[in-house]
Amino acid sequence: MEIKAVDVAKLRKMTGAGMMDCKKALEEAGGDFDRAQEIIREKGKLIASKRADREATEGCVLAKVNGKKAYLVCLACETDFVAKNADFVAATQAILDVAVVGDVVGLEALKATQMNGRSVAETVTERSGQTGEKIELVYYARIEAAQCTAYVHMNNKLGTLIGFNAEIPADVAKDVAMQAAAMAPVSISKDDCPADIIEKERQIGREQARLDGKPEAMLDKIAEGKVNKYLSENTLLNQALVKNNKVTVGAYIKAANPVATVVEYKRFSLND
User: Fold this and answer.
1) Interior CA angle at 107 toward 105 and 108, to 5°?
2) Per-residue pLDDT tens over the stretch 127-145
3) Could you say which of 79, 100, 164, 259 is the most buried, measured as most Cβ atoms within 10 Å of its Cβ?
4) Domains of the chain, with CATH numbers?
5) What are the C-alpha distances in Å from 97 to residues 114, 167, 169, 190?
6) Would you state the pLDDT for residue 45?
7) Parallel, antiparallel, or unpaired for β 158-164 and 147-152?
8) How far out from the chain centre does Cα 235 lie?
């Protein structure tokens, strides 16, 4: 049967698939739009399955603050060409919007959330059929605090969410979010730094001291010094502020509001 261009355009608008894919699906479906959509979805599943072992190292990171909550998502793909495509960015934005509207908690819950009559996970699989690449929803975070701020680097490959326990000026909050993006702290402070990270640094410190020929009795003290140095350089509140390395991030925040501190922190980078 003859497939009209207007019908191809209609299916493309419904599915986001390429023009030729839409034409072939309509031809196979005998002009039945519902069946054509199913064909396109099945193609997405097939491509996703074939490319399951590929590396999705490019993608789009987006974030949004909504009152006292903030959200961060990353939709990953294989190439920078797809990542920068307007349709791909719009798809990432649509997933973020669904997360915000539903106030979704957790990556798996977001994947199961409905959008346009199907789950986010199904929508992502369909995107594989549209692009011919492996597409994955690789990261999702949500925070809640008295004040939230978000920062996404201009290349849309890196983003942070920061939650404060009290109000501070927006420019100070942005500086902290940018600090976290640039310096990649492992945690907010020593108190929430994973115990295994601290223990690993302690062991490294002991071994370095031993290799340097330090007395056995001094190894523990030297190791603790190494741990403290590591924590000062790798925990957000204790890091030197990038824009003024004479003060720590914690002191910078308290200069703006003496009772303020960071209580939530999330960071994701496609380059890490």
Assistant:
1) 100
2) 887 777 888 999 999 999 9
3) 164
4) 5-50 (1.10.8.10), 58-144 (3.30.479.20), 190-263 (1.10.286.20)
5) 12, 25, 26, 34
6) 55
7) antiparallel
8) 20
